[in-house]
Backbone:
């Protein structure tokens, strides 16, 4: 939905979750444990991440240290690592400024805490919500488009885990 709005308004599109996904891939490549708070926070401050905010883009969504990422960002096997990294305060603090920089100058941004934490002073905010079965189906379609597969049980677990994590 956000990408469609960005296209119609001819504004950049920013999925703030891409930063967490990119960090999770970089951490896995570096051999960091998912619960290594200090290691993940240090990596979040040091790694070079570039996000593609072109709403028309069909290719890479993020680059880490000059290497484009696409399928790796969406690998369902990273979901548990992703949830843990995103729950760590020092990691969130390190990525917050990067998210704000990427959205400077006007952007359509999506993400669970985008309107309250990342861009609390935004002129316009729209909150969209969908029940878990709808989000599950949307995630399934997203993975199918990328040629990735996983079980419905694992996807349902991911949706519930994100809801629980975000409600804290």
Residues:
């Amino acid at each position: 939905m956000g990408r469609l709005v960005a296209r119609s308004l001819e504004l950049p599109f920013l999925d703030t979750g891409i930063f967490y996904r990119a960090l999770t891939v970089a951490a896995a490549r570096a051999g960091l444990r998912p619960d290594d708070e200090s290691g993940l926070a240090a990596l979040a401050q040091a790694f070079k991440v570039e996000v593609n905010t072109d709403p028309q883009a069909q290719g890479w969504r993020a680059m880490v240290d000059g290497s484009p990422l696409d399928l790796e960002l969406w690998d369902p096997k990273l979901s548990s690592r992703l949830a843990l990294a995103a729950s760590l305060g020092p990691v969130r603090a390190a990525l917050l400024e990067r998210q704000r920089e990427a959205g400077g100058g006007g952007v359509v941004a999506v993400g669970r805490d985008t309107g309250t934490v990342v861009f609390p002073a935004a002129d316009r905010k729209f909150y969209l919500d969908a029940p878990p079965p709808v989000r599950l189906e949307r995630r399934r379609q997203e993975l199918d488009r990328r040629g990735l597969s996983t079980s419905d049980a694992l996807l349902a677990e991911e949706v519930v885990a994100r809801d629980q994590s975000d409600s804290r």
